[in-house]
Amino acid sequence: MSIIEVKDLTVHYPIRGGFWNRVVDTVKAVDGVSFSIEPGETFGLVGESGSGKSTTGKSIVGLETATSGSILYNGVDVTKRSVRRRMQYNRDIQMIFQDSLSSLNPRKRIESIIAEPLRNFEQLSPEDEKLRVLQLLDIVGLGPDALYKYPYQFSGGQRQRIGVARAVATDPKLIIADEPVSALDLSVQAQVLNFMKKVQRDLGVSYLFISHDLGVVRHMCTRIAIMHRGRLVEIGTRDDIYNHPLHIYTQRLLAAIPETNVDHREEHRKHRLEIERQYEEEQSLYYDQDGGAFPLVAVSPTHSVALAPKTIAAEKAGR
Ligand SMILES: Nc1ncnc2c1ncn2[C@@H]1O[C@H](COP(=O)(O)OP(=O)(O)O)[C@@H](O)[C@H]1O
Ligand SMILES: [Mg+2]
Predict the structure, then answer these.
(1) Fewer beta carbons within 10 Å, N or C terminal of the chain?
(2) Do 162 and 226 belong to one domain?
(3) Do 18 and 150 lie in a common domain?
(4) Do residues 221 and 43 lie in contact, with contact meaning Cβ atoms separated by under 8 Å?
(5) In degrees to the nearest 10, what's the CA dihedral of 276, 278, 284, 286?
(6) How many A from CA of 50 to the centre of ligand 1?
(7) Residue 237 forms beta bridges with which residues?
């Protein structure tokens, strides 16, 4: 059974304006999104800034309220707050954020930052609590000298590891990692990703890994969903997405990954321009009149894509 199942989720934000502060419009931040995450898997949610990724992640942990649709945890509908409380949901689902400097309390020492979720959910003696915190620091490669320091005394990469330690303190089943390495240098990114993988191997946790960069999630994710303007445009295994991308928006994100091999740079540049041309000229194949993605249609048991109905028919005939 899937650990999390998101069914037709929508989150609309009202925009208020005018003298009476009435609702004048709504932002459809998430507009009918469905996917599921399996136990122990890393599921990627990728799209450019503003596509609704964070809103999706926050609705799953309960930081945003769904306008409609549902979220199932181990098959139980946890869209309602009262059900989440009863099921220890807030303990089992944790979130880590991009900006560790603002998500870690600057006035607290690392010891109490990591101990905080333990204090919320477990009654440990001070000695046991300290042991547990040391253990958690060790999991992310930090020594006992970290205990009495403040967040600003660490580098961005170390702070992100502290965020991981805090997130795993309550032995969660799913961690939602929202752009966890986007603020870090490339070399440090790899380090933090490796720690996240190690934590997954050690604890068997699932990740929802949110990123704007298909290059970053490549080695982390087993399955990936591509999000654009509040909707999913494609969903598939790593092989489906990287080797057989069907939606122009997915191809565009792939073309945006920098080419590191100098010999291939010119070729890569031409490919990128060609994709950009298609993206501009073939909108009607990929988006409806309002600029929204079409409903997803399965093209294989693992791979679904949001193409105009006529394109899908052609695609199937071509197989
Ligand atoms: N609290 C809010 N009120 C109004 N609009 C919001 C709010 N939060 C996000 N949005 C809008 O919803 C859309 C999706 O935002 P977000 O989920 O943060 O995207 P992403 O994480 O992919 O960058 C954006 O257009 C954003 O401006
Ligand atoms: Mg975001």
Answers:
(1) C
(2) yes
(3) yes
(4) yes
(5) -70
(6) 6
(7) 223
Determine the distance separating the centroid of ligand 1 and the alpha carbon of 13, expressed in angstroms.
Answer: 8
Q: What is the pLDDT along the chain (319 residues), one digit of tens a residue?
A: 999 999 999 999 988 888 888 888 899 999 999 999 999 999 999 999 999 999 999 999 999 999 999 999 999 999 988 888 888 899 999 999 887 677 888 899 999 999 998 998 888 899 999 999 999 999 888 999 999 999 999 998 899 889 999 999 999 999 999 999 988 888 888 888 998 999 999 899 999 999 999 988 988 999 999 999 999 999 999 999 999 999 999 999 999 988 888 888 899 999 999 999 999 998 888 999 889 999 999 999 999 999 987 776 666 666 5
In contact, 214 and 254? CB cutoff 8 Å: yes
Residue owning the nearest CA to atom 7 of ligand 1? 13
Q: How far is the CA of 318 from the centre of ligand 1 (A)?
A: 38
- Domain boundary among the residues 184, 219, 243 is at 243
Residue with tokens 């010999």: 263
Full DSSP string of 265-281: HHHHHHHHHHHHHHHHH
**Domain span at 270:** 245-319
Q: Identify the CATH number of the domain in which residue 115 sits.
A: 3.40.50.300
Instruction: Point out the domain boundary residue: 243, 264, 283.
Output: 243
Domains held by the chain: number: 2
